[in-house]
């Protein structure tokens, strides 16, 4: 079946540090890939998406590239801020369906 | 424009009771999906509805049911509540036309506690 594996947290970084959160997915079908962010006490917000191989999604300084050869969609940001502290979820769509399969989430804490 | 709205925001029930959660999608969206997020985990897919028809069902028992109304709002019903049903229930909406490339927009969730 479909699955998503993302790096275990929590991750603690100093402000302006470089961020990478690893995500790999099962290679069944031609999924779209997503990163969602969840701030404390809130629902999920779409951060970025990519719908086909080699696409790069980007938003608010975050980037992720759809790598079919390594079945990966790693999230990166060059300089994190305290306001980026949240839980980040990697997700893939089903083959031809709307169903999203999520990773377990990675909690990021950025300290001043 | 209003985003996805859900009600109630919080709910406390006891084992064996029934609960109904409600969701209103973004205006113009015809697809609604429901997810369960247990504390510390990623959301798990429960149902997807498009144009009032069930289009997908996750691995949840028959105690879970849902429906979509002509105005595209949706209800999730859970019967015979168990302690393990305690979770954040998320509703997501999308236009419903682009299949796996669709972006789903999530509401703030309903936090259910079963005692």
Write the layout of secondary structure elements.
The complex is a heterodimer of chains A (112) and B (115).
Chain A: E1 4-6, E2 11-14, E3 19-21, E4 23-25, E5 33-38, E6 44-50, E7 56-59, E8 62-65, E9 75-77, E10 86-93, E11 100-102, E12 106-111
Chain B: E1 5-7, E2 10-13, E3 19-24, E4 31-37, E5 44-50, E6 53-57, E7 64-68, E8 74-78, E9 87-94, E10 105-106, E11 110-114
Parallel strand pairs in B: 2-11
Antiparallel strand pairs in B: 1-3, 3-8, 4-5, 4-9, 5-6, 7-8, 9-10, 9-11
Write a structural description.
The complex is a heterodimer of chains A (112) and B (115). Chain A is globular, with a radius of gyration of 13 Å. Chain A is 0% helix and 48% strand. Chain A has 112 residues and is mostly beta strands. The mean pLDDT of chain A is 92. Chain B is mainly beta. Chain B contains no helices and eleven strands. Chain B starts with a strand and ends with a strand. At the A-B interface, strand 6, strand 10 and strand 11 of A face strand 4, strand 5, strand 9 and strand 10 of B.
Strand portion of chain B = over 45%
- Largest sheet descriptor of chain B: 7 strands, mixed
Going by helix content, strand content and strand pairing, the class of chain A is: mainly beta
In the predicted model, the low-confidence regions of chain A spanning at least 5 consecutive residues are: none
Helix content of chain B: under 10%
H/E series of chain A, N to C?
EEEEEEEEEEEE
Q: Most extensive interface: pair and counts?
A: A-B, 29 and 30 residues
Largest sheet of chain A: 6 strands, mixed
């Amino acid at each position: 079946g479909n699955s998503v594996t993302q790096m275990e947290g929590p991750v603690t970084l100093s402000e302006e540090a470089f961020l990478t959160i690893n995500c790999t997915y099962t290679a069944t079908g031609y999924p779209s890939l997503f990163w969602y962010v969840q701030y404390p006490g809130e629902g999920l917000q779409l951060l970025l998406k990519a719908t086909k191989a080699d696409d790069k999604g980007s938003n608010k300084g975050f980037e992720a590239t759809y790598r079919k050869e390594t079945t990966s969609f790693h999230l990166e940001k060059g300089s994190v801020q305290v306001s980026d502290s949240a839980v980040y979820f990697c997700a893939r769509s089903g083959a031809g369906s709307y169903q999203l399969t999520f990773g377990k989430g990675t909690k990021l804490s950025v300290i001043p | 424009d209003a985003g996805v709205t859900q009600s109630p925001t919080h709910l406390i029930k006891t084992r064996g009771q029934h609960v109904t959660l409600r969701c209103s999608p973004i205006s113009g969206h015809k697809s609604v999906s429901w997810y369960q997020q247990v504390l510390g985990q990623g959301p798990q897919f429960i149902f997807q509805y498009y144009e009032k028809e069930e289009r997908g069902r996750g691995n949840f028992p028959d105690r879970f049911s849902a429906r979509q109304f002509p105005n595209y709002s949706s209800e999730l019903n859970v019967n015979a509540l168990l302690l393990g049903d305690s979770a954040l229930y998320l509703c997501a909406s999308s236009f419903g036309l682009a299949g796996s490339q669709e972006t789903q927009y999530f509401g703030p969730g309903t936090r259910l506690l079963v005692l």
